[in-house]
Specification:
This protein is mainly alpha-helical. The chain has one domain. It is about 75% helix and about 5% strand. It contains ten helices and three strands, in the order H-H-H-H-E-H-H-H-E-H-E-H-H. It has a three-stranded antiparallel beta sheet with strand order 1-3-2. Helix 3 crosses helix 9 and helix 3 packs antiparallel against helix 10. The protein is elongated and about 115 Å long.
């Protein structure tokens, strides 16, 4: 099993994507909730958080989060992070207790929050998120490897059964030929 360090996660988009591909949304939520007890306050039961809440969660300036977002916009958009305005903003304004002065707001999903944790350098919370994420993936990979090995053995077993069946079929054909030859020999001797 290859061990990925948290510095690799910060530097490599493909490493981040690979790690996140192995984490389901529910697991992302569980990881974040284990890292910090503010989880329920952050997500407010809606499964989303604002950039300001992400700053509070990771204990970094909002400007830092925005810089990271702009540098890695494509990755974060794939994880459902988006900016809303207009009618969409009016629809969530009450749910998130937003001021009416805001003309747009960026909403973060649990997966986006995890990816952000992989990108932030100077946040102790982000380091804890990376460690927790790596620990979770380390538990998933051995189980997957065991399942792969079980399936390989099952496949080998089926292949052996197929070979045995072919051998039995060839034996049956040879026995029929032998019987036919034996019968022909006996008839020719009469």
């Amino acid at each position: 099993m290859t061990m990925i360090s948290d510095s690799v996660l910060m530097e490599s988009a493909s490493a981040r994507s690979h790690q996140l591909a192995q984490i389901k949304s529910q697991q992302a939520t569980e990881i974040l909730s284990k890292i910090k007890s503010l989880y329920f306050a952050l997500w407010k039961g809606e499964g989303i958080a604002t950039t300001e809440e992400m700053g509070q969660f990771y204990e970094v300036e909002v400007a830092t989060i925005r810089k990271v977002y702009h540098r890695h916009k494509d990755e974060l958009a794939q994880d459902g992070v988006k900016t809303i305005r207009g009618k969409s903003l009016r629809d969530v304004r009450d749910i998130l207790s937003l001021s009416s002065k805001q003309s747009n707001i960026m909403l973060w999903t649990p997966r986006g929050a995890l990816r952000l944790g992989m990108l932030l350098r100077d946040s102790e919370v982000a380091k804890a998120v990376r460690t927790s994420l790596l620990n979770t993936v380390e538990k998933v990979i051995p189980a997957q490897n065991l399942e792969i090995e079980r399936l390989k053995l099952e496949n080998q077993n089926l292949n052996l059964k197929l070979e045995v069946a072919k051998a039995q079929q060839q034996t049956a054909i040879a026995q029929e030929r032998l019987l036919a030859a034996s019968s022909a020999f006996c008839l020719s001797n009469y």
